[in-house]
Amino acid sequence: MKVSQAILERRSVKAYDPQHQMSEDEIARLMSLAMLSPTAFNIQNWRFVVVTDPALRKEIRAVSWDQAQVEEASLLVVLTADLHAWAKQPERYWENASKPVKDYLVSAIDQYYAGNELVQRDEAMRSCGMAAMTIMLAAKEMGYDTCPMDGFDFDAVAKLLNLPDDHTPVMFVVVGKAAKEAQPRGGQLKMDEVVVYNKF
Questions:
Q1: 131-176, pLDDT tens digit by residue?
Q2: Helix axes 117-141, 24-34, angle to 10 degrees
């Protein structure tokens, strides 16, 4: 399947076959593709919590407005952000670069993020958003359906996942075999309403 076809066919599916299981190889492939998602300065600030424990998924469902797909989809991925990834041995993000490039970028990372919590958080949200889209398109290409989700108690999920203090939940993506087709598209705005050339 071409990526453009995956974009056209990707829908937010709510009902999944609870008996279907993804193989470890499929999960590893999906996560390896997610890890190719772009991040500013290559800081790779997303952290993917793959929840496989049925009891934990039941607990997460309870703090997610009892949405069945949290528990019934084949896979629950909680995208979380390490808000301080920029400060954790940043030289490792450029270990394959030449020394001048590495030195420049490591210094630039510090100048950009240090003391600026809003930028740290904004970049984390952008990074996780792009990674979520990668997961959804890759899953579609693999024959799976998905649903991005933010309908949950963020603090409760952070506690259930034992997230470190410098991490925050961003969103879920559930992956699995659809048990029921998505609803028809609600309606798309016209291109001339959303695409602006040069200036408003």
A1: 999 999 999 999 999 999 999 999 999 999 999 999 999 999 999 9
A2: 140
The residue type of 139 is A
Q: Which residue has the tokens 């999960």?
A: 27
Starting from the edge strand earliest in sequence, which strands make up the sheet with 46-51, in order? 46-51, 75-82, 167-176, 145-149
pTM for this structure? 0.94
**Cα–Cα distance list, 13 to 52, 141, 184, 195, 199 (Å):** 20, 15, 11, 27, 36
Average pLDDT, the chain: 96
The pair of structure tokens assigned to 5 is 């076809």
The count of other CB atoms within 10 Å of the CB of residue 116 is 13
What is the rounded distance in angstroms from the CA atom of residue 90 to the CA atom of residue 41? 9
What's phi and psi for 98, nearest 5 deg?
Answer: -65, 160
Q: Are 73 and 174 in contact (CB under 8 A)?
A: yes
Distances (CA, A) of 117 to 31, 88, 98, 113, 155: 28, 15, 29, 7, 19
Q: How far is CA 187 from the centre of its chain?
A: 25
Question: In the Cβ-directed half-sphere of 138, how many Cα atoms lie within 13 Å?
Answer: 20
CB atoms under 10 Å from CB of 178, counted, come to 18
